[in-house]
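Q: Hi! First time asking for a complex rather than a single chain. Here are the components, and I think there are two in total. Is that enough to go on?
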Amino acid sequence: MAKFLRHALVPMALLACAPAIVPYAHADEGMWTMDNLPVKQMQDRYHFTPSKEWIDRVTKASARLALGCSASFVSADGLVMTNHHCANECLQQLSDKTHNYFQDGYSAKNPAAEQRCPAMELNQLDSITDVTDRMQAALKGKEGEAYTKARQAEESAIEKECAGADAKTWRCDVISLYHGGRTALYRYRRYQDVRMVMAPDQNTAFFGGDPDNFNFPRYDLDMAFLRVYENGKPAKVAAYLPFDAEGPKDGELVFTSGNPGSTEREVPLADLEFSRNVTVPFVIDNYSALDGALWQYSRESVAHHQEAQERIFGIENSLKVYRGRVPVLADPKLLDAKAKSEASLRDWINADEGRKKTYGDPWAKNAQALAVKQQIFKPYIMLEGSFGLQGDLFSYAKLLVRGAYERQKPDAERLTAFHDGRLPALEAELGSIAPVYPDLEKTELAFSLTKLRQVLGADDESVKQVLGKAAPDDLAVSLVNGSKLADPKVRLALWKGGAKAIEASQDPMIVLARKIEPQARALRKRMDDEVAAPSRQATEAMAKARFARDGVSSYPDATFTQRLSFGQVKGWDENGKQVAPFTTFAGLYDRATGSDPFKLSKPWLDAKGRVNLNTPFDFVSTNDIIGGNSGSPVIDAQGHAVGLIFDGNIHSLGGDFYYDESTNRAVAVDSAAILESLKSVYKNQALADELVKGHL
Amino acid sequence: MAKFLRHALVPMALLACAPAIVPYAHADEGMWTMDNLPVKQMQDRYHFTPSKEWIDRVTKASARLALGCSASFVSADGLVMTNHHCANECLQQLSDKTHNYFQDGYSAKNPAAEQRCPAMELNQLDSITDVTDRMQAALKGKEGEAYTKARQAEESAIEKECAGADAKTWRCDVISLYHGGRTALYRYRRYQDVRMVMAPDQNTAFFGGDPDNFNFPRYDLDMAFLRVYENGKPAKVAAYLPFDAEGPKDGELVFTSGNPGSTEREVPLADLEFSRNVTVPFVIDNYSALDGALWQYSRESVAHHQEAQERIFGIENSLKVYRGRVPVLADPKLLDAKAKSEASLRDWINADEGRKKTYGDPWAKNAQALAVKQQIFKPYIMLEGSFGLQGDLFSYAKLLVRGAYERQKPDAERLTAFHDGRLPALEAELGSIAPVYPDLEKTELAFSLTKLRQVLGADDESVKQVLGKAAPDDLAVSLVNGSKLADPKVRLALWKGGAKAIEASQDPMIVLARKIEPQARALRKRMDDEVAAPSRQATEAMAKARFARDGVSSYPDATFTQRLSFGQVKGWDENGKQVAPFTTFAGLYDRATGSDPFKLSKPWLDAKGRVNLNTPFDFVSTNDIIGGNSGSPVIDAQGHAVGLIFDGNIHSLGGDFYYDESTNRAVAVDSAAILESLKSVYKNQALADELVKGHL
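A: Yes, that's all I need. Here is the structure of the assembled complex.
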């Protein structure tokens, strides 16, 4: 397991408000949209130009897990390859008192034995349509609230037309690229019947644990295989990636196709300073405290350990990312370059009256937006971002309350997440049979209520409203004990009952969510109208000015939509020491200590005599990836799968802000390691055969 | 309880490397040394000039608790007034299964019943001697290691001469003021027999808990009374502060006499940037994680709650301080002013060949020191600062191991803490009968070993040496279970046995401390020779240049030595709302919710009918204080005690870097509240009488 899943913990709006345009792409840099690949660059550097057939196959064989990961089809019978850490929620949800699939691994004897993941949705990209003109026409001349509303309405209309009557089959997302310089409609085939095929044990998938996370050399078999079903049968898919039994060679040209979540390579300097001075310290502070609390919680019993493990992984993974941002955001090289580039653009605008009129002063506009953001940052993140009200039960309650109110409005006036086209996914979420752990719920809620009071202060009106005269611990216990929302039937009944059922509900978690909804909504409205809207307009103006001046287009900042990166298998120089690009199975046995997280599982201990120790295990390449790329296939020039992305090295943590080919490396499992481990360690010949043959 | 004790958790060397000179003191600003009071300023602003008798009495009636607090004598019979949060360690150590003095309060019926605090030392300032010339002669022309050694040797010699044969009675500290612009010898009378007289219950002392910490209005009775003994009898002291039964008035001139720990008001900009980019993020990250772990630990049982409470208080208090630094260190006003001031000084030096020769380029020298500091920061703080090896048992082991090796050297070559004059305090620490809690030890050690591996990486040689093939949890359990160091007799025997006993010891904690000692020492040496020495020389050169140019002297940055501040009782304007300077007992009853930390204790619930609700409770004043001032008396122009400092308001958190009279406020308990609560709530007429009469 590792960390290239998209962070789900902090509201994205706060952390990645403003993607932007990269004027020049260097070397192997770039997360390219499939309809605008850098063919000249690829040809110049690697003497390779992908055919239309190659692009089509790679596009259609790529997929996205709605929870925030990437994936690919690797057989005609709907077999999906992704990371263990992208499937861990499902593995945990399928586990019971006798089976701990998350810890011990999973292996279905045959398709009939493959169990359905309770809350997994897979999206396969079907088409991309340019809707830039339509969106710009709808937004013209609008500001603040009017802008937010017009944007919501137009997105709703476009998505509705796209999905048509069949929102269960199609998912349509309007995506803003290049800061609204372009708007695109992404249409996805939606698979909600996703079943577990195979996953190795956790020790092997996440060998080295948090200490080795983001490091290399590495020895992780961070893989999982799923299968999508249609009408109760393995789905026949139009495109898949043939599996390469050998893996790539040192220096070989390789691609990744995946869904990088977000980057901030072209956000204004003021936004980086805001991150450095406000967001990053706040997130590290609060995640570290939660990490500490859950660390102790998981030491209390085997059950607590099991319940908290996946959550801890997510938090520690995010923490490594945020810690990585601290030195980057303090690096004068980055900050000075950005200051210089912005100053020159500002001078260029101000040198001409026409340009001044066209672009205005986007820096002043952005600064004003950031001032509002600063003002509402803490209440927003605590109340609307729910950092002050954590746990599954409150999340359900909030979704139910907001969903009930939102669905009373016409589609065009709703928040994006509640458009008709998005409702099936929400309903699936509410119907999830994933277990809710009362002890963990109480701990998370008591923790977050304590934080709520600490961060906003005991005299804050919302804090008083939530806590009344109760202590956080007591309130958490009574809320969790009193709520029936752990039962999916109860949740679905409330969902179907709409606003009337919500208003009538005496469930204490619903009562709390109802009570806090007005403040949370008000904060959301300010963030949308007074921060996001003007900030987007400001960065859009900067981007347009840059286009007008330089006439150069490149790849847009990441948006959790499909992107292709190219690069080569290659080590790097670490303070004068060359890091080799491959590890082998032998290295895994060498690194094992016998104790967690460097403990070998039984299958590997047993296999030591028969496994080929020279099998390449993990490798690094220069591909430009970021969180969200977890589970991306590594593809060779023939369009075959030669590896499986699961992480980046420590230098890749700067990748949010810039790409440095000399040290930034993607980390992948070698396809040869996947095959050899299936055959010699996990004795799953059937799956190995399906991979090699490309069908069941 | 609150937070103006000096932070003990992070090695001071890392956090406050370079105190310096403030060229102009404004308004009520200043932490003045007793031999250089701003008499003109006081006269101009308040028409008051203290008499020699006033200064003498205040000086001698002030005291310092070795653990990091301030205190004062309030009766001729050795009665000492300080904060509850300065006595909480003692209260906890005196507690047993039937008495929880920390939680429920303490009250000795008469002096014979006063119990001795197991590990408390009180120092009373006896004299200050200028040793600047002697020190400068010893250091002349020295650099790096030679500088460090010469400094150690000269300090040792001065302190030895000062304490003479009677190091048990006298403590002598060489203190560098104004960056070595002046060096002073502080000689203290040492009291090691300190007994507990009275402390209120924790609910009242720390009413509002962490949420209200650093806030005002406030309702805390953060007081404790101790008594120093000589030869088994209450000590007769030469000076004490008569107790004022009324408390101060709004606008009244008041003083505080205490021991502010450290400020960084004149450290170079580069040091502030280092704090912002490295120290503050690291400390917040790691303290928050520990805070979270202990938060959960304390929820596990009543015993765990009791064991961890004092530790949690210290951590949360430090966290508030560090969180307060985040916006201050990002404030362009502060940073720009400092950049400008340094640029002008640099220009002044460079404008003249003679000055260039005299002062050199102290900024370059300092930058080089900071580069080394950056490089060794994490290993230093984890291994030498022991953040990676926490718990009382390891601390004892480290002290024993280092002490054994240091004591083999001649006094002049030892680290300051191991000079002959300091040994009695160390011996007292090792002989402390304070309980060691095995569960808490295991938790802290497992936590810190996990952090050690996380921060330095699994491949770090020291990490491998400490952990071997063990998991942090398993190692912590075996170390704590296997060690006998919880027993003071065992510790004292090892201390007396010296290096031979240490080398022969099989105690696993000693074995570990022995193993890590060479790396820890090497890091210490680099920090001393390559960071502290050149950094001190650099800031000294800057200070001297400033003196030469401006000819202005002011107060030195804080050094945990006695300082006087002056100011007045005064509220402040908080975003347009006036905050009144006083609270009353009635406000306490209003704010109570019935649940922790806003819960009234039984004595207060019972007293509601008879207590005078109009009694002033806490008040704020413009006095310039900082961590370490906890327990300082507030003194009026007559030299009487009118209050007891225990905290600052939220704006005081900027006080590390600057003093802003408009909002920075000290928070104190009113002397009237102390008397009224003793009489009407705690029914301790004897103590009230002693305060009023000034003797038993």
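A: The longest strand of chain B covers residues 182-191. Let me know if you'd like any chain examined more closely.
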